[in-house]
Amino acid sequence: MNLNRSAAFCFLAVLSYFASPALAQVKRASLSALHSIPAVKVYRYPTGEASLDTHAQIFDELRKPTSSGAFSSLKVYVVDGAAIRSLIYHEFVYGGNFQRYPWVPTGEIWIDNAISAEEYPYTLAHELYEDELMRVDGLSYAVAHDSALMLEHRMRIIDSGICQRHETSLPKVLTIDADSVRELPLPDSLQLQGIYRVPVGEIEGMNVWVVDGPAVRKSIYPDFGFSGNDMVYYFIPKGELWIDNSISCEETLFSIATELEERRLMKAGIGYDTAYTAGIARSGALRTKLAKESAARPSIIVSKMTDRETVSGTHRVPIVIPH
Asked: CB 3.0–4.6 Å: which of 32, 78, 97, 258 could bond 279 by disulfide?
């Protein structure tokens, strides 16, 4: 981006910042307080768009507030939490949205790359709901934040039930890998117990789950790390792909990409070593592509006003908080 385009972007960003009706109750930061931070220092990669519609199907008490009858769709990015705490806001944790943090671009949700793969779906839902309550209904951050925590809690309870029911429905699994290696003195087969943590969903025909990595290493296979699939580890039920809950949410996308390619090739008769190398190449290409996209984003505009407690909202209606 050349200097003139950079200046134009900064001017438009500042203009929209001061003109936003949602900031009517917030003290404006002075123009001299503004500065920018290169996007490459903050963004890690985009994860696509997300909305609360998925959760609205689960929780009847979540009303659909917009005129279209659906929740707003926002762009989601995994960001460098440590860099944000160092360069922008020392208290940034888990995630953020534009309603709470003026330096998060409008229409974006940021997820701290320091959180785990297990926490990602709950943090995302939290930020989406908090944004909706502050932006649409004009609720204070404190109320919106507490409401979003209750949403998280309901999701955790529901996911726990899904995992328990899935686990008890499974037959016993073998305790070896594709090379017939059994790393612990175990019987030929066992019943999985306390392994599943979060149902991710179906991706390219595979059922993806976040699992308790430490429990797998302690009780089944000490060398299990980051992720695995049913063609490599016979203790993983057929058609499943496991993501270690200990890894950073930043690694989840790349672990899934690796496992999908590895399994596809092994199912076609390719040996593990070759399939694994190809899987790493696929995730490596994805890393490069997403890094370029992140580096091309505009700089982050930061002012002295680093957070806010209230916004005006586009309309005010009664809210029912999930319990």
From this structure: 258
